[in-house]
Amino acid sequence: MNLPAPKDRGGRPRDPDVDRRIIEAALQVFGLSGWSGFSMEAVARTAGVGKASLYLRWSSKADLLTEAVASRFAPIAEIDNGDVRADLVEFADLLLDLFCGPHGLAARRMAVESHIIPDITERWNRVRESQIRASRAIVKRAVARGELSPHTPIGVLLDALHGAIVNHSIAAPEHIRSQTDARRRYARQLVDFLLSSLQEYTAERGVEESARL
């Protein structure tokens, strides 16, 4: 994802490569050390630039981290391929890239600590809420199209999907979760498993409901 256009503060133009290195360093430091260990000094050292370069661009560490989050963690847009499996696989791919990709450690840390960081809470909540809206819309459309049973427990299904991905981002060996192809395979395996289990579950619920009639 491209960085937002730098703010024009006059003087010599900013170097986009330095901006990129600082943003990457900010996410690396935050991922490893959290908010309590996040400092302009640590970011400058990791980026290989002088601390003055940071303060020319951002007035505080909160401003720096806010821009880093905005530039690397985007809300999820609506997903509608007309097929529930394709939709859920695409959604799982996006979530796996977020939590297992190059900035995965920072994303996992953000999910835990965003509520204590000035100016970050609202921005991260937009990311999180977009995930919830997009995934619920996928399942509701599938029910409306008749692809999924009206007995589908939407909350349980999505808890299983989200929870499995977060657990995978923590438990899977780094050399596996860092590979894009491996993440894509896992997304398909996970979605196929959940849809198969869901089919069996909703069939049982349908039989139980029929027996009560």
TrEMBL record:
DNA-binding region located at which positions?
39-58
In this protein, which residues make up the domain named HTH tetR-type?
Answer: 16-76
Keyword flag Mitochondrion: no
Q: Coiled coil: which residue ranges? A: none
Q: Which InterPro entries match?
A: Homeodomain-like_sf, HTH-type_TetR-like_transc_reg, HTH_TetR, Tet_transcr_reg_TetR-rel_C_sf, TetR_C
GO molecular function terms attached to this record: DNA-binding transcription factor activity; transcription cis-regulatory region binding
Question: What Pfam families would the database entry show?
Answer: TetR_C_11 (PF16859), TetR_N (PF00440)
Q: Which UniProt keywords are given for this protein, alphabetically ordered?
A: DNA-binding, Transcription, Transcription regulation
Protein name per UniProt: HTH tetR-type domain-containing protein
Organism from which the protein derives: Thermobifida fusca TM51
Q: What is the lineage of its organism?
A: Bacteria, Bacillati, Actinomycetota, Actinomycetes, Streptosporangiales
